[in-house]
UniProtKB/TrEMBL annotation, chain A:
<keyword id="KW-0472">Membrane</keyword>
<dbReference type="InterPro" id="IPR032623">
    <property type="entry name" value="FecR_N"/>
</dbReference>
<feature type="domain" description="FecR protein">
    <location>
        <begin position="111"/>
        <end position="201"/>
    </location>
</feature>
<dbReference type="InterPro" id="IPR006860">
    <property type="entry name" value="FecR"/>
</dbReference>
<dbReference type="GO" id="GO:0016989">
    <property type="term" value="F:sigma factor antagonist activity"/>
</dbReference>
<protein>
    <submittedName>
        <fullName>Transmembrane sensor</fullName>
    </submittedName>
</protein>
<keyword id="KW-0812">Transmembrane</keyword>
<feature type="domain" description="FecR N-terminal">
    <location>
        <begin position="13"/>
        <end position="49"/>
    </location>
</feature>
<dbReference type="Pfam" id="PF16220">
    <property type="entry name" value="DUF4880"/>
</dbReference>
From TrEMBL, chain B:
<keyword id="KW-0804">Transcription</keyword>
<dbReference type="InterPro" id="IPR007627">
    <property type="entry name" value="RNA_pol_sigma70_r2"/>
</dbReference>
<feature type="domain" description="RNA polymerase sigma-70 region 2">
    <location>
        <begin position="13"/>
        <end position="72"/>
    </location>
</feature>
<dbReference type="InterPro" id="IPR013249">
    <property type="entry name" value="RNA_pol_sigma70_r4_t2"/>
</dbReference>
<dbReference type="GO" id="GO:0006352">
    <property type="term" value="P:DNA-templated transcription initiation"/>
</dbReference>
<dbReference type="Pfam" id="PF04542">
    <property type="entry name" value="Sigma70_r2"/>
</dbReference>
<dbReference type="InterPro" id="IPR036388">
    <property type="entry name" value="WH-like_DNA-bd_sf"/>
</dbReference>
<keyword id="KW-0731">Sigma factor</keyword>
<dbReference type="InterPro" id="IPR013324">
    <property type="entry name" value="RNA_pol_sigma_r3/r4-like"/>
</dbReference>
């Protein structure tokens, strides 16, 4: 880095600035010695540290300027599998295929919306079908049956695969492309979840290009993608009135219950983060809401039209 | 009551922290600053801290950085004020203009990082904006820790050079 305009003391100061911000590398005795060796060191360190912090604050205040790629985090710590990146060429080919002007007609968007508690099957012109869960909304296009924009709620996509025209779904900014598929997309308040029952889905083909195979899911929260393993047969189980969870927060479970049962379900903050593992039989719960209490380990209180989940007294 | 936990660590290392603050640019004020620091920290201690001494050092370091940055900001304000006096009519920069300048600065910072390539830009963002440990970043990107370190250094250099340019 000989052409670097930073002078030698600044250069060392910059290294210390990086090092002392990293708990794994910080050496406070060594740093003190360096500071004491020459009184100008402290000023150089201030300048360099401030230069970094200014740049970082600036980026934080304008997060869109770096438009970060989603970060993929493996969710199962015990066995770390290598990330399944797909080669750039394949991803590029997919993007190309999506972008081809095959559906050259003008877009003719239409919206399908379900009430809470309702489930509707939406057949598409290409033989694919979308099962829309309660309280959901999706925009489709008569001119291009291979495109859908999820706006709210949850949907199970049963896609007739066509290599030349992949089916694409926009799930609140998360781009999904099918690779021959049955997959479920759920837009929660906090996060988006994509789970694959059959075939495979490419998440964000333009960016991270994360491939999900059957039995895999990804949770997207902000820019973070967390990969999960799911029971493939449980994906879209809500069609048969079954909701399966593996460690979901009660607040997320309540959100689903409200959507599927068509009544408000609220959670006390003290139990909202409680994790739930198991399957909820919606029909049984409809008949007897008290079942929920035993299942979720909470007290269920009737609260006007809906239910309140509370800590057990 | 005998002091426990971080308080015990603070008392045992008080002299080292004073020495550090003095070297860090506080000079004679180091004694007072160390006391200020402890008063501030004792009020917002929640949960156990893995390495209390490193935590205290870092807090002392950040205190000096904050002082430097606010001093510099005050100097800049004075300078702006002097310029405004000079230009009579000109009031303070309107908020819309300030926002625009801030945005342009952010864009230059981002451009500086992306010019280094995708990996150094990602490393910098993950490490310095999102606070992810370098070991984890190395694992995510499938590179060694020393590669992460050198990417980080390269990005820091580029940003320091940019800072020289734009002030």
């Amino acid at each position: 880095m000989s052409q670097d305009p930073v002078n030698p003391i600044d250069d060392v100061a910059l290294d210390w600035a990086l090092r002392m911000a990293d708990p794994a590398r910080a050496d406070w005795d060594g740093f003190t010695d360096w500071l004491e060796a020459n009184p100008v060191h402290a000023a150089a360190y201030d300048r360099m540290t401030a230069a970094l912090l200014d740049a970082e604050d600036s980026l934080r205040a304008h997060p869109d300027v770096i438009a970060p790629e989603p970060v993929i985090v493996e969710a199962e710590p015990p066995r770390r599998r290598p990330l399944r990146w797909i080669g750039g060429a394949v991803a590029a080919a997919l993007v190309g295929a999506v972008g081809v002007g095959l559906w050259s007609e003008r877009p003719q968007p239409y919206v399908i919306e379900t009430a809470a508690g309702e489930v509707r099957r939406v057949p598409l012109a290409d033989g694919s079908a979308i099962m829309l869960a309660g309280g959901s909304r999706i925009t489709l296009d008569h001119a291009d049956p291979r495109r859908a924009v999820m706006e709210r709620g949850e949907a199970l996509f049963q896609v007739r695969h066509d290599d030349r025209h992949p089916f694409s779904v926009d799930a609140r900014g998360l781009a999904l492309t099918d690779l021959g598929t049955v997959f479920d997309v759920r837009l929660g308040r906090r996060m988006t979840r994509v789970a694959v029952a059959e075939g495979a889905v490419m998440v964000n083909p333009r960016g991270a290009a994360l491939r999900l195979d059957a039995g895999q899911a990804v949770l997207a929260e902000g820019n973070r993608l967390v990969r999960q393993t799911v029971a493939a047969e449980a994906v879209g189980g809500w069609r048969d009135g079954r909701l399966a969870y593996d460690g979901a927060a009660l607040s997320d479970v309540a959100e689903d219950l409200a959507r599927f049962l068509g009544r408000p379900v609220a959670v006390r903050p003290s139990v909202a983060g409680q994790a739930f593992r198991g399957t909820i039989d919606l029909n049984a719960v409809r008949r007897d809401p008290r079942l929920l209490g035993a299942l979720l380990n909470v007290a269920v209180r009737e609260d006007g039209q809906g239910w309140m989940l509370e800590p057990r007294g | 009551m005998t002091p426990t936990g971080i308080e015990a660590v603070f008392l045992a290392n008080r002299d080292k922290l004073v020495r550090f603050l003095a070297a860090r640019g506080a000079g004679d004020a180091a004694e007072d600053l160390v006391q200020d620091l402890w008063v501030k920290m004792a009020g917002r201690m929640d949960g156990p801290i893995a390495n209390p001494l490193a935590y205290l050092y870092r807090a002392a370091d950040m205190l000096m950085i904050d002082r430097y940055r606010s001093r510099r900001q005050a100097e800049r304000r004075d300078q702006d004020w002097a310029e405004d006096q000079h230009l009579q009519e000109a009031g303070p920069e309107p908020p819309a203009e300030r926002a625009l300048v801030a945005r342009q600065t952010a864009e230059r910072v981002a451009a500086t990082l992306t010019a280094l390539g995708e990996r150094p830009a990602t490393v910098f963002r993950r490490a310095r904006i999102e606070g992810i440990p370098q070991r984890q970043i190395a694992a995510e990107l499938g590179v060694s820790i020393s590669t992460v370190e050198s990417d980080l250094r390269m990005a820091a250099h580029a940003l320091a050079a940019l800072k020289d340019q734009i002030g």
